[in-house]
Amino acid sequence: MPTPSKSKKPVFKTKRTKTAAIDLNESDKKIKKQRIKTILKKLAPLYQDNPIEIDYETPFQLIVGTILSAQCTDKRVNMVTKTFFDRLRTPQDFLKLKREELEELIRSTGFFRNKAKNIQGAAHQILENHNGEVPEKMEDLVKLPGFGRKTANVILSALFHKNQGVCVDTHVLRLSNLLELSDFNDAIRVERDLMALTPQKNWHQISHFLILHGRRVCVARKPDCEHCVLAKICPSVSLKS
Ligand code: SF4
């Protein structure tokens, strides 16, 4: 009995397949870059004039406001800091307070014990290691207690107009997924994607605009697609919302 002939294995043209995959990635990247360009253009008139929503007069007060803003709205932070920022301006001022006094002042921002500890820890580090000046390098800022890349980016951009990264909070993460700028759901990888797609000079803007858009229009509970200026380019638009 003749042995059945083995079916011919399909021949893969590895080189072409690889090239096609690269082309696809490249064209996908091009589309996303164009989408970012449009997002910046559409959102600039809405949010350009709202640089940062935390009130402060001295650099260290921005450090304090940023620490207090964890798990708390900027509005509440501003209400609380308004009661003591006129007398507490420098790292030394915050270190003169007893820990319990500081805890009482910031109690209503939540997690007040941890935040008081971080504020005085940051004041101490800034005095010890940076002659009392808020450091302007990412690697120094992320060493301050209560600080990560996200908060360090806020300081770098607001105080020093430096774009060393893209600040990714929950809004930036959610909108990056909805707008299909990144498929990831962790801040580090979303930041990496946004940095690759956005010109460096716009790193601060893209983050700032997406945060405000996420708070005001594309809110997590019910995105207001009907009134969203990004509706035409958003892959997740639902005009029935
Ligand atoms: S169109 Fe809808 S889902 Fe897309 S960004 Fe706007 S509000 Fe969000």
Helices and strands, with pairings:
Blueprint lengths: L13 H34 L11 H10 L5 H8 L9 H6 L2 H8 L5 H19 L7 H4 L7 H12 L9 H9 L8 H11 L5 H14 L25
The structure holds iron/sulfur cluster.
Q: How many DSSP helices?
A: 11
Alpha-carbon distance between the two ends: 68 Å
Strand content: under 5%
Shape: elongated
User: H/E order of the elements?
Assistant: HHHHHHHHHHH
How is the CATH topology of the domain at 59-160 named? Endonuclease III, domain 1
> Any idea of the CATH class of the domain at 59-160?
Mainly Alpha
- Radius of gyration from the CA trace? 24 Å
Number of DSSP strands? 0
CATH H-level name of the domain at 59-160... which superfamily?
Hypothetical protein, domain 2
Describe the structure.
- It is built from eleven helices and no strands.
- Helix 2 packs antiparallel against helix 8 (149-160) and helix 5 crosses helix 6 (112-130).
- Mean pLDDT is 87; it is low at 1-18.
- By secondary structure, the chain is mainly alpha-helical.
